Task: inverse folding
């Protein structure tokens, strides 16, 4: 007998399975061996797969999240970034207003990425303007560790991330300023990274990811803003980018990606990408590890 539409499992049934996968990963446990009647299958070469009949929304969501769910329990950290922007490539107005570039569907997706990650990273500019909670309040799932990248120690200790006790928070600065940072927000909320800041003020984001890995934080979600995500891409740290484009034109706003100029089109990054529709917005899932410059023309 064919299943009825009402009996076909959907996103509500899929999401707890995604959280189970993440819980096993965090415990460094071997992937569960599901029997033939279970809704998930695991293969060492192909990763996770759905079994049986699922509705279209669940299949699409699983397809979008699969690269993250398939991350190995060992090896180097794995990073995913996200940006929500307008048709003309802006993440906010000139004055910094970004509420709301994208619609609710993208907001829920952002909270899902938080729940599936060990830590969520934002730059000081985004933290100061948005005063974000960086929690998973719109979906089920544990809050990630909140990582605020603040090498200049410019952030107010009254920000919600430092004061609401909703989730663990780390203010990241160079190790040379860790004592000063501890006086502002408490030593338990400071991660001083040796070699984070260069003499010219540049940031060594590989040093940051290594320091987070040492704390057991291996799947990292770089949530924003545009400057911070761009820095991670420029240093080759991001594995994947979710770029959500809203049908709005801001005009002379704050740009999203800001990367070094390419001399010619053949030198430009060309990541493989997939398109997912989220309400009125379009999400590009970009595989940055597969990005290659365009082949030269003969």
Result:
């Amino acid at each position: 007998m064919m299943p009825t539409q009402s009996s076909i499992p959907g996103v509500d049934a899929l999401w707890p399975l995604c959280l189970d996968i993440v819980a096993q990963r965090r415990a460094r446990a071997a992937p569960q061996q599901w029997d033939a009647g279970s809704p998930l299958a695991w293969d060492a070469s192909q990763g996770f797969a759905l079994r049986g009949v699922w509705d279209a929304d669940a299949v699409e969501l699983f397809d979008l999240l699969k690269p993250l769910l398939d991350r190995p329990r060992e090896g180097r950290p794995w990073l995913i970034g996200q940006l929500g922007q307008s048709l003309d490539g802006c993440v906010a107005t000139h004055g910094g207003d970004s509420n709301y570039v994208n619609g609710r569907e993208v907001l829920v997706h952002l909270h899902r990425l938080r729940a599936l990650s060990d830590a969520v990273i934002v730059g000081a500019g985004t933290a100061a303007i948005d005063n974000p909670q960086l929690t998973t309040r719109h979906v089920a799932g544990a809050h990630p560790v909140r990582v605020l990248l603040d090498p200049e120690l410019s952030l107010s200790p009254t920000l919600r991330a430092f004061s609401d006790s909703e989730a663990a928070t780390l203010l990241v600065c160079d190790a040379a300023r860790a004592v000063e940072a501890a006086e502002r927000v408490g030593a338990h909320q400071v991660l001083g990274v040796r070699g984070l800041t260069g003499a010219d003020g540049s940031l060594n984001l590989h040093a940051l990811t290594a320091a987070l890995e040492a704390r057991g934080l291996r799947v990292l979600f770089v949530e924003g803003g545009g400057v911070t995500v761009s820095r991670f891409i420029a240093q080759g740290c991001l594995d994947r980018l979710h770029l959500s484009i809203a049908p709005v034109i801001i005009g002379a706003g704050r740009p999203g990606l800001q990367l070094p100029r390419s001399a010619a089109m053949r030198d430009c990054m060309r990541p493989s990408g997939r398109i997912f529709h989220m309400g009125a917005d379009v999400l590009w899932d970009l595989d940055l590890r597969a990005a290659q410059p365009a082949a030269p023309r003969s």
User: Anything to note?
Assistant: The longest helix spans residues 11-26. The chain has a mean pLDDT of 92. Residues 175 and 194 are 5 Å apart (CA to CA).
